[in-house]
Write a structure and sequence with these properties.
The complex is a heterodimer of chains A (138) and B (77).
Chain A lengths: L1 E4 L3 E4 L6 E2 L12 E6 L7 E5 L6 E5 L8 H5 L5 E8 L8 E11 L4 E4 L11 E2 L11
Antiparallel strand pairs in A: 1-2, 3-4, 4-5, 5-6, 6-7, 7-8, 8-9, 8-10
Chain B lengths: L10 E4 L3 E9 L2 E7 L9 H14 L4 H12 L3
Classes of the chains: A mainly beta (138), B alpha+beta (77).
Chain lengths: 138, 77
Amino acid sequence: MKFTNRQFGELEFEDNHVVTFPDGLIGFEQFRKFLIVDDEATEPFRWLVSVEDGGLSFPLLDPGLLLPGYAADAATGGEKTVFVVATLRSAAGGSTVNLRSPIVIDNGARTAHQLILDDEGLPLQFPLAPSSPQKAGR
Amino acid sequence: MLILARKGEEEIRIGDNIVIKVLGIHNGQVKLGIDAPRDVRVVRGELYREIQQANVEASHADRGAAVQAAAGLKRPT
């Protein structure tokens, strides 16, 4: 199947590549079907791209790049992939990721949810700035 | 919207599986106990709105901004 996205132009996909969010994303409940797009130009950011609304996409980041251990805490049971949603701001060091409500994908069922984690210490705006104190990997 | 008056220790039941109990009222603050199935999301309204807002802002990103942010990530510290 094919669709056109504002940023990526025409994208072709197989049905089994679609990730279904039964509840949508928070604030975007009406959109259920997304693709994960790997974009070489923006690596390591990937994109959650709606197949239902050609204008809708979210930049994602593997939280392991920032916080080893985060993904294992966020998702338990079965084969899961965890992403955090990034907010990109043009001001230097202004970009952040939302650690409070990650995207958790069930790799087998290809369903996903945006969770709200119980830990109130997890920020909705965790800075991506390279000067942040977190070490990169091990 | 359904409006109900409840006193301390009184409950409201929503469907078969959700119970909201007034645990106490002190200094204008109501403490509620909520029992709901695990798949029912229970969060403070303001947190939900903050996450909505974060998602809306995230959805405004374009590839140019991502290229820039990626370069910032890769820069050695």
